[in-house]
Write a structure and sequence with these properties.
Layout lengths: L21 E7 L7 E8 L2 E7 L6 E8 L2 E8 L6 E6 L6 E9 L2 E9 L6 E8 L2 E7 L5 E3 L6 E5 L7 E6 L4 E4 L4 E2 L14 E10 L8 E12 L28 E5 L14 E2 L9 E4 L9 E6 L10 E6 L7 E2 L3 E9 L10 E9 L7 E6 L3 E5 L7 E6 L5 E9 L8 E6 L2 E8 L7 E10 L7 E12 L1
Length: about 475
Amino acid sequence: MSLARGRQGLLIAVSVAAAMILLSVSVANAAEPRARIALAKAQPGVFLITGSGFPAGTAASLAVTTRSGKDVGTARVSADGSLKAKLKLNPRYSGLIKVQATAAGARAGASFDLPAKPIPLKLYDETAPGKGNEVANLQDRQVIDVSSLGSPNIWALPGSGVKSVRFCLDNGACRVEANAPFAMHDDEAPEKWRPSKGRHTLDVTGYSTANATGKAVAHTYVAFQVGSGAQPSKPSTPVTQKPEEAAPSNVPVGGKEVFVGDFETGDFDQWSNNCHAVSDCGPPSIEIQSKDTRNSKFAGHFIVHDGDTPIDSGERSEVRAEDPGSLVHNGDERWYQVSYKFPANFKLDGDWLIVTQWHATNDGSPPVAIEIRNGDELTITSDGADNVNHTIGKIPVGKWSDYVFHIKFSENKSEGFVEAWQDGKLVVPKVSMRTMATEEAYLKAGIYRDNDATGTSEVWMDNFRVTAP
């Protein structure tokens, strides 16, 4: 199956939660045996779709619908009529998800409801089994110090309606606690919990019955840092450009910051760990590095080689934002600040390469994209709406360049517009165009290129910020 340009595929990323409960399965099948699908949790953020009763040797179309939109991919049906597919999920997501599998007339679907109720977490120093001294609340992206604690532990306080809690630390082994207070580490275990310094993740799900069965009614996912001598704190504020190298003051931006994707957290949390690349969120396709940045601590580095097609359409290495502030709707006005750097020897051997796109929630090309054409020309394109393009200019290779894109999002050409600045200079004066194809659009950044392109493509990205009026 070949998807339209700009569309993400199912087998790499669909943003749903790490703790999922199967509520219902619907089947409609013209042939026996009846087709069925099921979803099983492999680890936080990773699920397996399995199916049976499909026509042998066919290719099943898999469609997943969430509140972020619809994604479509394929899975090969084996000789025994079974199929398997891996679903990469955003562990912070909550809401309804629908899965539909279709192959040669056989169809099976399932609906899942994900808990939206958060679970408060606390860091405790347990002085005796079943007792403890509260040290601090544990929240997402905090820094904690456990070096002075005699017996550190993390407690979940989900409230009424929860009979058991499942803890999964660092995507590894999980533990079920059926007795309140719900503790991550067994206080009767012979060894105390001694986390290593650095980044850790914790996935916590509360269930309506004992032994992590029944309905999932609450869920929390946190990423935290363990340091020495540090106090629990908010994440560090993003590093901005030096004043003398900031964009000139005559370049307008919005007064309200609604999304930051500058990688200054040192990880992909800002982008919901939602990466579309053959190496997932990590090298060699995507990495966060500190060697070459735009006056900051970290920058994103994206690279694509021949054949890097992690999903059904296009060679790519991208991140996709799931934060509500990154989504846009008809009538929204936004300013996008971003710095790009292309290698000194950059040359596109292909028809197109996209570095940032605002994609509709249906299939097709993006209504707005920042795209390279004609080998080395940066343009604003609208293949998914008006089918027009506006040239920004030649790519300044071998050095960082700062951009501001001002976009009014609308399905109406008379209301939508774009304009752009490069290094403080207006390069695309305001021009009217249709900038939406559906009611909502989502944001992706990195590299997405023509399948016929050859060679290696790479780009560095930094200081990505979105503001509104």
